[in-house]
């Protein structure tokens, strides 16, 4: 009979990202903000709430998240909060675009890659578009 302590205890963690557009729009009565937060508990959050099944579902806490890096590269536009770079995901990371009242539209398109630190393997990637719009048009 084969038996090994701890044989079934390890769990493979697979980061998941999918391309997405996050938009906040209003009729010009207030500023608008579109945002994403890569939380250190493995949840991808927008200004509308959590997105199930994204970035690292099922982790225990920030120590496991800290085994991964987020690589952010902007392809067009700019962030109002956050910046391009490489970040350890043991700390939550926030990215947003904000536009003032009745000021038009602001967009930032960026790529996000999740890389395992131990071997530099990119395990998930996506293009994320943030758009904030505040206008009477």
Order of helices and strands: EEEEHEEEEE
**What's the β-strand tally?**
9
Mean pLDDT: 84
Within the largest sheet, what's the order of strands? Answer: 1-9-8-5-6
Rg measurement, Å: 18 Å
> In one word, what is the shape?
elongated
Terminal Cα separation, in Å? 73 Å
Strand content: over 45%
Q: Largest beta sheet, briefly?
A: 5 strands, mixed
Q: Are there runs of 5+ residues with pLDDT below 50, and where?
A: 1-10
Please tally the helical runs, counting DSSP H or I stretches of 4 or more residues: 1
State the secondary-structure class: mainly beta
Q: Fraction of residues in helices?
A: under 10%
Q: What does this entry look like structurally?
A:
With 137 residues, the chain is an all-beta fold. 3% of the residues lie in helices and 53% in strands. The protein is built from 1 helix and 9 strands. The chain has one helix at 62-65; strands at residues 20-26, 32-38, 43-46, 49-55, 68-77, 85-88, 93-99, 104-116, 121-134. The strands form 2 sheets. The protein has a 5-stranded mixed β-sheet, with no helix packed on it. The chain has a 4-stranded antiparallel β-sheet with strand order 4-3-2-7, with no helix packed on it. Strand 5 and strand 6 (85-88) form a beta hairpin. The chain is elongated, with a radius of gyration of 18 Å. Residues 1-10 have low confidence and may be disordered.
